[in-house]
Amino acid sequence: MKKVILVSGLILMSSLLIGCGQKEVKKEDGVSLTMVFVPASEKAQSNEFESLLKIVEKITGYAIKNIDVSDYNAAVEAMRAGRADMAWFGAKTYIKAAEIANAEAFAAGVKKGDKDAGYQVHFIVPKGSPITQFTKAQLQGKGLALNHIGSTSGDLVPRFELSKIGMDTTNKEHFKFVQYAGSHDAAIMTVVNQHADFAGVSSRNYDARVKDGTLDANAVTIIHSAYVTPPPLAYRKDLPEEVKKNIKKAVLEAHKHGTIGGYGGEMEKYISVEDKDFEELREMNRIMESK
């Protein structure tokens, strides 16, 4: 059996043009792929996708090796350097990966019970907090916890929402402190333990921690929520078209073959997304970078 490996930025041998056409990539070609995950949780992010990837491997015959990294920039760098052929990115991280790492979004997960692939950023305060409204008057001078610079629901969207009420996380007069906790889970617990007055966190992590018992929903209050563009699965644009087609088809059909997971737990299904679906978020990012 001929073995074709995708590592270190090398293109599949089967992508070489032969005559006027491209050789079809089949299961028996033994394709191996590497996949990277942004660190949105205290738990290994690849674990949430394990059931999905096993089904994709079974359908396509491809082998997929997981790579966990410590931060959002490292996930982009892994694809830019050719160490990763596929990725699960946050939406903001994807925008950067599309710009500098040749990434192409192709699917996003619809969480079980949800109507679409989007989710929310929740602003939470400790139960009994004097903060009851998402207003500058109540939030000014308070301590804020966020996830990680580069996070969509733990950095960009919270900062954008705060800017709409006249608050700037770089303005020391607006906040007692702004702390990046390193993950959504850590930001949540910072509020629970009253080490911060409020936090902006992903609803996917919030719901997952309530479900697994890590978070008692009665320990916090949600004072504001805002929509977040779905975090996509992406692959390198320069993968052979047949490989990309097979991967995407397997991901979109995976729910027909068993229970599938993803960011935040069990997924209903995965839906097709394209790069143009991230234009609104790109504009949000441009606005925040111009401030």
* Intertermini distance: 56 Å
Strand content: 25-35%
The CATH superfamily of the largest domain appears as: Periplasmic binding protein-like II
Give the helix level as a range of percent.
25-40%
Please give the largest β-sheet. 8 strands, mixed
Which regions are unreliable across 5 or more consecutive residues at pLDDT < 50?
A: 1-25
- The name CATH uses for the topology of the largest domain is D-Maltodextrin-Binding Protein, domain 2
Helix tally equals: 10
Structural topology:
Blueprint: E1 4-5, E2 17-18, E3 21-22, E4 31-37, H1 45-48, H2 50-60, E5 63-68, H3 72-80, E6 86-88, H4 91-100, E7 103-111, E8 119-126, H5 136-139, E9 142-146, H6 152-163, E10 175-180, H7 184-192, E11 198-202, H8 203-211, E12 220-228, E13 232-236, H9 241-253, E14 260-262, E15 265-272, H10 279-290
Parallel strand pairs: 1-4, 4-5, 4-6, 9-10, 9-11
Antiparallel strand pairs: 2-3, 6-13, 7-13, 7-15, 8-11, 8-12, 14-15
